[in-house]
Design brief:
- With 180 residues, the protein is mainly α.
- It is 82% helix and 0% strand.
- The chain has 6 helices and no strands.
- It has helices at residues 2-28, 31-47, 58-115, 120-130, 136-143, 147-172.
- Helix 2 (31-47) crosses helix 3 (58-115).
Length: 180
């Protein structure tokens, strides 16, 4: 009995191969993919050959399987492209973030190095203002100096830091941009 079904399936395959292929090709517009879908269609049909209700409509049944298989293939391809695009984007963003962090770390190291060369009074005011985010009045109160002195020291510290970093930038020629 099993050998008879195999012979019948071979006849079905030979008879409907081109029809199934044409359906897949119309959807996919690619010969190789259409062949893959045609093969997949016949594999599915072989597994469910006993479930067809009307043997006279085998061609329509196979065409239906072929079209659904081709559409499923397109959906999978679209999802794969979407996932691939998301992975590429996230990889690019991660790389960009790492580069930005390294640049920021490098800039902070240069600033700290130049900051260490400032006088103690200028360095103290500068750190309280920009690292600790204190207001001028708070710095003046903490250091027991007038607010005007705090502003003068901040100006001098910024001016010296900017001059030193610009000089370093000119020597290195790396195009480093300094904040105003």
């Amino acid at each position: 009995m099993e050998a008879v079904e195999k012979v019948d399936f071979c006849k079905i395959y030979r008879r409907f191969y081109y029809r199934v292929y044409k359906v897949a090709y119309r959807i996919l517009k690619d010969e190789c993919l259409a062949e893959d879908v045609t093969q997949e269609t016949f594999i599915k049909a072989l597994a469910h050959i006993g479930t067809r209700k009307d043997p006279d409509k085998t061609g329509a049944w196979l065409a239906s399987i072929s079209s659904r298989t081709a559409v499923d293939f397109l959906r999978k391809q679209k999802r794969a492209r979407h996932v691939s695009f998301e992975i590429e984007c996230s990889s690019f963003q991660a790389r960009e973030n790492v580069e930005r962090e390294v640049e920021q770390w490098s800039m902070e190291q240069e600033i700290m190095q130049e900051l260490s060369l400032l006088t103690y009074s200028l360095r103290k005011v500068f750190l309280l203002k920009y690292r600790e985010q204190w207001k001028e009045a708070e710095i003046a109160l903490a250091l027991n100096i007038p607010v005007g002195t705090v502003k003068t020291r901040l100006y001098r510290a910024r001016h010296q830091m900017k001059a030193k970093l610009e000089k370093k930038k000119d020597q290195a020629g790396d195009g480093m941009v300094l904040p105003a």
